[in-house]
Amino acid sequence: MKKINQELFDLYDEYCHGFMSRREFISQASAMAVTLGLSASIVQALLPRYAEAQTVSFTDPRIRAEYITYNSPQGSGLVRAYLVRPMSAGSRPAPGVLVIHENRGLNPYIEDVARRAAIEGFVALAPDALSSVGGYPGNDDRGRVLQRQIDPEQLKQDMLAGCHYLNSSPDTTGRLGVTGFCWGGGMSNQLAVELGSDCHAAVPFYGAQVPAEQVPSIQAPLLIHYASNDPRINAGWPDYEQALNANGKEFEAHFYEGTNHGFHNNSTPRYDESAADLSWERTINFFKANLYS
Fold this sequence. Notes:
Blueprint: H1 6-16, H2 22-35, H3 50-53, E1 63-72, E2 77-86, E3 94-100, H4 108-119, E4 123-127, H5 140-148, H6 152-168, E5 172-181, H7 183-195, E6 201-205, E7 222-229, H8 231-234, H9 237-246, E8 251-260, H10 273-291
Parallel strand pairs: 3-4, 3-5, 5-6, 6-7, 7-8
Antiparallel strand pairs: 1-2, 2-4
């Protein structure tokens, strides 16, 4: 993969989080590449390549994957989601894991993450927060715009309804884990607050922290993953850590040296293979320890 300067990664992070349009990003990044002595074509290398990033096929014999809808009476009414069951469990119930996407809807990367969770023995549900506006539109730019148009409380209620769907499913044991990335990481923290004892493990990846006054409501153990080069998110960690310690919460946090926000997403050059593999191994082991107990 081509070498990409940190300045370009930082600009891409602003674009990913909605601080500029695609046109603005391409224009500024192209100019920056020239200034840095790089080919302007390197900008295209920053954009996601989902087809190349698939690690578990939709038809993998170890899983059974399908699209479903579930009720969200306090949110969108009806939410479309990707449900993946592990064939290794046979007819036996397995723990459930809610997989929460970034700030752009249920894209192919998150679907692949759900399949990765299923082959490890979990019933994985990945909701599409864009269900009320037609669902993930097939490209991240439009998805990002659509997600910003939805009321945050509605989004939270749709994710909570997904947790309740998993907990009440005959396919699950009633043991629930949540994990998410970027926006989904922040939502994982929030769901740990909202669900209390109904959540048994939460694993946020580079997600925004909840306010200190909400921390007492957290009952689940937390496994928290951060990129080392992510000042926007990491700025909230000291207060969060202090609140978790002050309230006697069970947690562990890992900072992955030399990584950028989004390092687990293997469809973009921010992907860091060693950090992604280690963080996912830790995640699976954490879920197995807490959801199979």
